[in-house]
Amino acid sequence: MRPFTYERATDPRAAVAAVSRTGAKFISGGTNLLDLMKLDIEQPSHLVDISRLPLKNIEELPEGGIRIGAQAANSDVAADRRVRTRYPVLSEALVAGASGQLRNMASIGGNLLQRTRCPYFYDTAAACNKRVPGSGCAALDGFNRVHAILGASDACIAVHPSDMAVAMTALEAEIELLGDQGARRVAIDDFYRLPGDTPHIETVLQPGEMITGVILPAPPPGRQGYRKVRDRASYAFALVSVAAVVAAERGTITAARVAFGGVAHKPWRSVEAERILTGQPATMANFRAAAEAAMAQAVGRGHNDFKIELAKRTLCRSLAQLAGELRRQL
Amino acid sequence: MIGQALNRVDGPLKVGGRAAYAYEHWEAGQPLYGFIAGATIGKGRITKIDIARAERSPGVRLVLTHRNAPEQNAPDFSITSQYSRAFPVLNGPEIHYYGEPVALVVAETFEQARAAARLVDVEYAAEAGHYDFAARQNNAYAPKKVNAGLPTDSAVGDFDAGFAGAAVKVDQRYSTPYYFSQAMEPHAAMAVWNGDDLTIYVTDQILAEGRTCVASTLRIDLQRVHLISPYIGGGFGSKLGLHHEAILAALAAREVKQPVKVAMTRQQIFHLVGPRPTTSQRVRLGAGKDGRLVAIGHDVTMYTNPEWEYAEQTAATTRSLYAAPNRLTRHRLTPLDRQRGEDVRAPGEAPGLLAVESAMDELAYALGIDPVELRIRNEPARDPERDVPFSDRRLVECLREGARRFGWEERPVSPASRRDGRWLVGYGMAAAIRMHFQGTAKVRVRIGRDGIAVVQSDMTDLGTGTYTILTQVAADALGLPIERVRIEIGKSDFPESSGSGGSWGAANSSIALHRACKALREKIEHSAGEPGDLEAEGEVAGMWKEPAYQAYSIHTYGAHFAEVGVDADTAEIRLRRMLGVFAVGRALNAKTTRSQLIGGMTWGVSAALHEEAVVDTRTGAFVNRDLAEYLVPVNADIPDLDAIVLDGFDDKANVLGAKGLGELGICGAGAAVANAVFNATGVRVRDFPITLDKVLPGLPLAEA
Ligand SMILES: Cc1cc2nc3c(=O)[nH]c(=O)nc-3n(C[C@H](O)[C@H](O)[C@H](O)COP(=O)(O)OP(=O)(O)OC[C@H]3O[C@@H](n4cnc5c(N)ncnc54)[C@H](O)[C@@H]3O)c2cc1C
Ligand code: SF4
Fold first, then answer.
1. Ligand 2 shell residues, CB under 6 Å
2. Contact yes or no for B445/B517 (Cβ under 8 A)
3. Which of B115, B624, B634 sits opposite A234 (nearest CB)?
4. pLDDT band for position A1 (50/70/90)?
5. Residue B2 lies in a domain
6. Does A40 touch chain B (CB under 8 A)?
7. Most B CBs within 10 Å: which of A32, A43, A101, A232, as the mutation test of the B interface?
8. Which residue from B67, B221, B594, B601 has the highest number of Cβ atoms inside 10 Å of its Cβ?
9. How far B79 CA sits from the closest chain A CA (Å)?
């Protein structure tokens, strides 16, 4: 048996100190970590349970934003009135993820750090650079229907599975971290890394650092929406998803945010699409131009070729939907 | 009593967690836990196996491999039913399929056994195996028979000439993937030796066959084997026979002299239990301009394990479905290095009707005839290949009643013509047909001084409601309230039946029970005044011995109607509503009947839109081997689905007028959904399942 020890952390600093042991790992809801332990993919020798730390609150910030504690349950954040009214894209993304039972258990910090759903990552008999660095990537020439079309490398074509993180990317969230060197904040777009040659290093989190919260700046102007495309109506990961925020005045887009899920090793912010949209009339032709720009660098690996066109269409529809809502709002 | 919507008599036990399943029996004391280590190649041989690390691992009591496993009998392939054959495990260094057990590790806890199983070091000499069905289709051969002893080929008239001369033709190929049953309860067994007697708590649909399999594998006397399976968490064919779990538990328990239990993990089930074979089907339909078929051809190719041949009867019901003077059906098998194929709910009809009923829709479209009307026009007066009368054929009634209730006349006649917001809306329909089988069964009923009737048989309840319907049949025949009937099933020491499978269990055991009760009543009458224990037996013969089954073509029927929405931008396909109307003879319990039918229809939706076990053709492994990746519908996918059963009684089938229906719901259901997708979009996908990536290229770009 792979024995491990377990302790329940009493405060954030103690948690960080406790996790400095080699082989130690944080556990929050455990909905991802425990599965991976049973499959022998994660092999911690010590678990530091941080699920009871007083990091569950959602607080308003003076500049108009909010701070979400890392231990807040996914379902509580989705249901929070302030989140629902001011950050609907986040609420929608959370509710689109997993199932009711899982969302009740899952924490915000754990959701950000959930591992990929690449089937070869789950199969200890398959080559996988993310699981065993240097062993190869079985997905490259294997069954890669759910894999990345943007920002991938020859070492890894996995995607990040979180819905929530895609919405947070569109909202320009900051991740609040605590380590033995103290606290720091990292913009979510800088938090995640592309696979490059080191797909096993997924974020800029330093060993022993803990996520204590997520800061959402004041909501950007405009309408927000999250659209998740999947193989069944519920309880399936995104093939492609889009988090978008659109502001317009008299039919002209004044500001836009676009992030994709299911297409890359991290939530994929498309500044190219945003640039094309800003200052342009809200027409399908311009939405399509933005979609083309967003996917200009996209490459399929065979089974996932369809994602390129799917991502474009999903973006166009999301933008059209938001623009329509804006028009009706007037 | 018979026919009433009686609640499940075992319901409170189940929802209260008091019904013990195979892995949950404690009466034999603390068991040890076995965990299977599986091969990580698809073909080749073990060149080195080192168990030292596993043996030293905490709690480990035994590591069985091919080097120390006792000798077992080889399967005798001349035995027709594959589930009665010996099923040896760990019987040599050769690897025949991915995941094949290479070791069983037995330890004091499940976690210890699992961890130690990972420490078994195996080296292989891998050989190039054949795993790619598409690439091997040209290697197909004709089996001697197909499943259920049905003929491999059939021919009537002159198909080639008939088809060549037809005014309107459909000639298409359809493919279906590997599908799995994946019952909620995994394959599990606990073996307990008591001297030379072996008791195995199993999860097994046919105990008599399971017992034969165990006895012959282990080379022990049949009378020494006792199988116990009172509750089963679903089987759907995957538990018609025992698998590695039962044989490994028995071998290990004998070795360690303590009970041993073994359960497969969900991932292991994908490699150790047989899938429904993947198929490629060519359907050719030739018709006159009036829609009358002049030629029907159905050619099926599927994979088989090279040794354990399994041929689903995919084209068998095509032989009885529609009238046409010129006909042809053929089954071919291509060997792959893959575990054996096995029966999965509605073997044959499920994939076969996906193809044939899609083709009928294509023909209706080509002719410009209402698909319901097209089927009615091709209704045969007699079984078109056997040339015998039908018993109780009510397909047309199902079609008409379904069309009326569903509002079929509201359908969008031309494809891609109706829109509801973001959804393209389409209607589709398909016919359902399934052969009714009858197998042998014996049932004993005993009445004691307490006035309680006790019914005993080795029959099983998969969760379908056997306890409940047998209670109803006995109460009805004996004139007792249901509280005075006790059903004892799921023990191989009880009178032998053919178990549950092929939808025959309900009728088989009900008829035998009905007869047993009649005999008991006679005894009671003759023993007037003398209270005491009385007992009687009843039985039913197999269909091969019943003249009615030679004289008539006996089937169940139905019609499915589905409405789907397809997202105009993303091609996501969602069922909006579905209705099935069925003719099954007499329904024994309205509630369990409906549950079986709507469950089957849901399987049909799944086969059309969701399910597919994907093979990595480099290794032979199934890639998406868990229930997060092997998709089946969730509640949100099945918004509004209903089944209607026509009142009936098939007097040719048996004295109770009842026929099997557990598998009927799935028959044709997927095709109704597929046809609705075509109607919604104008895109015809013939490679199942119909996922959005296959529809997307056919959808125009949005303009606004
Ligand atoms: C069947 C299934 C379906 C799912 N479907 C979806 C879906 O559709 N969309 C989606 O987005 N997600 C989905 N999920 C994933 C789910 O969202 C995650 O499992 C969950 O969010 C993880 O949160 P947790 O608190 O349980 O994390 P844990 O399992 O406890 O931890 C996950 C990882 O994060 C680390 N960690 C946790 N908290 C912290 C912290 N505060 N600081 C530093 N490290 C930390 C742990 O060490 C571990 O490595 C699904 C999961 C399952 C099992
Ligand atoms: S894509 Fe990444 S996670 Fe998947 S097998 Fe390749 S390296 Fe591993």
1. A 116, 118, 120-121, 128-130, 137-139, 156-158, 199
2. yes
3. B634
4. confident
5. no
6. yes
7. A232
8. B601
9. 36
ipTM of the complex: 0.97
pLDDT score, position B667: 98
Mean pLDDT of A73-98: 98
Identify whether residues B406 and B529 lie together within a single domain. no
User: Could you give the 3-state DSSP secondary structure of residue A317?
Assistant: helix
Distance CA A214, CA A236 (A): 25
Q: Can you give the pLDDT at residue B527?
A: 86
At B703 the pLDDT is 87
Window 279-318 of A, Cβ < 8 Å to B: 284, 288, 306, 309-310, 313-314, 316-317
Q: Is residue B356 part of a domain?
A: yes
Please identify every residue of B annotated as catalytic.
663
- Dump the DSSP string for B629-640: TS----GGG-SS
Cα B14 → chain centroid: 23
Residues B522 and B578 reside in one and the same domain = no
Does residue B243 sit in the same domain as residue B290? no
User: Could you say which of B272, B305, B336 is where a domain stops?
Assistant: B272
Q: Which residue's C-alpha comes closest to atom 2 of ligand 2?
A: A156
Q: Alpha-carbon distance B649 to B81, whole Å?
A: 31
Mean pLDDT confidence for A48-62: 97
Measure A113 CA to ligand 1 centroid, in angstroms.
6
Cβ atoms B495, B540 nearer than 8 A: no
Token pair for residue A298?
């996209």
Q: How many domains does chain B have?
A: 3
**Best of A6, A16, A32, A204 to mutate for ligand 1, by most ligand atoms within 8 A of CB?**
A32
Q: Which residues line ligand 1 (CB under 6 A)?
A: A 25-33, 50, 70, 74, 97-98, 102, 105-107, 109-111, 113-114, 161-164, 210-211, 237; B 628
Looking at the structure, do residues B428 and B567 belong to the same domain, yes or no? yes
pLDDT of residue A25: 97
List, for residues A176-207, the tens digit of each pLDDT value.
999 999 999 999 999 999 999 999 999 999 99
Average the pLDDT over A278-292 and give the result: 98
Same domain flag for B171 and B186: no
Question: Which residues on chain B are in Cβ contact (under 8 Å) with A141?
Answer: 618
Which of residues B272, B302, B326 is at a domain's end? Answer: B272
Q: Give A-chain residues touching B623 at CB under 8 angstroms.
A: 119-120, 123, 142-143
pLDDT of A328 strictly over 80:
yes
Mean pLDDT of chain B: 97
Q: In what order do the strands lie in the sheet with A240-249?
A: A223-229, A240-249, A252-261, A268-269
pLDDT tens for B578-601 read 999 999 999 999 999 999 999 999
Alpha carbon dihedral B537, B538, B540, B541, in 10-degree steps, equals 50
CA dist B405 → B399, B409, B579 (Å) = 10, 10, 8
| Weakly modelled stretches of chain B, pLDDT under 50 | none
Chain B residues with CB under 8 Å of A41 CB are none
Whether residue B252 sits in one domain with residue B363: no
Does any domain span residue B704?
no
Strands B225-228 and B390-391: unpaired
Residue B310 and residue B260 share a domain: no
